[in-house]
Amino acid sequence: MKALTINQFGGPEQLRIQEVAIPAAGPGEILVRIHATAVNPVDYKIRNGSMKFISGKKFPRILGGDIADTVEQSPKKSLYRPGDKVFAMLSIKGGGYAEFTTVRESHLCHIPEGLNMTEAASVPLAALTALQAFRKEGGIKPGDLVLINGASGGVGSFAVQIAKARGAYVTAVCSARNTEFVKNLGADRVIDYNSEDFTKISTRFNRILDAVAKSSFRRCSKILEKGGLYVSTIPNNGLFFYQALNFLRSKKAGFIMVRPSGGDLMIIADYIKKGLVRPFVQQTFPLEEGARAHEIIESERVRGKIVLSVIP
Ligand SMILES: NC(=O)c1ccc[n+]([C@@H]2O[C@H](COP(=O)([O-])OP(=O)(O)OC[C@H]3O[C@@H](n4cnc5c(N)ncnc54)[C@H](OP(=O)(O)O)[C@@H]3O)[C@@H](O)[C@H]2O)c1
Q1: Residues 19 and 116 in one domain
Q2: Residues 113, 147: one domain?
Q3: Which atom of ligand 1 lies at the shortest distance from residue 297's CA?
Q4: What letter would DSSP give residue 27?
Q5: What is the mean pLDDT of residues 230-253?
Q6: What is the mean pLDDT of residues 59-68?
Q7: 254: CA distance to ligand 1 center in Å?
Q8: To bridge 258 with a disulfide, which of 105, 129, 193, 286 should be the other Cys (CB 3.0-4.6 Å)?
Q9: Shortest-distance Cα residue to atom 9 of ligand 1
């Protein structure tokens, strides 16, 4: 099969099309034919080697953690039949930048009606991150004041919509060029981070999701309500320390490490069916142009998501 692989860590130029064997499905796994795969920041971090302590150093390596696909082969007792349209977040092993991969059945979910393959591929990893981050410490209640930093990116754009779907009052932080986009996602208030420091405003929030990990718990704790929670998408030593002391503090800190989950994807699919969540794909590239897509995702300026099309 055709796959976009890396054979060593390095820049986007390391991504090359290569012929590799179609993987064989193990117990509890399903072989799928990939139509589209999203590009996430974790992909370039694995590519450049900055995550090798988690991702390992085995080559050739096929990146890609998000897929929209059709079932190619499934066991007799599976919920999924050949031809079913499904989407999934893959494990850290990746495998999405290819024509086929194997997925654990428990990580799959049927694609909700109304989403094409490109849109479906853009959903799993980013939307699951937002959903799982908001579930921490008892979750969001209707009326909660929620602030999302980095609201225009992959995680942030889903976070705004999921928080609204849960009945929160959402303050979104982004740059001026993304204000209209974020308002259209449903944000109640938008702060341009270039003209106002959101950590100095007078509102006190129940939840802060730093989707782009550009602030810190220390700075954000000033605008947290008592009992409020700050969650970052990037763990660091400070956060491990603060999280360990949460039982002593009224203002709590944490981080999210997203996990694949077909059950959680069903919750997101249900939001999509109800019209409460909608992915936004900024740009699509053919698989062969994955290096260009990596240059763009690495710029940290993407609005919504970027997708690689495997079957045009
Ligand atoms: N731990 C986990 O499980 C997990 C899961 C998913 C993602 N992540 C991490 O979370 C981070 C965000 O992921 P993503 O997919 O949302 O990234 P992304 O889509 O690439 O984020 C791009 C967005 O970030 C915004 N941005 C850049 N600098 C900003 C700043 N200083 N303040 C506010 N917004 C800013 C940009 O908007 P402007 O152009 O308007 O600035 C752009 O829309 C990445 O580092 C990723 O690796 C972690």
Answers
A1: yes
A2: no
A3: 20
A4: T
A5: 96
A6: 98
A7: 17
A8: 129
A9: 233
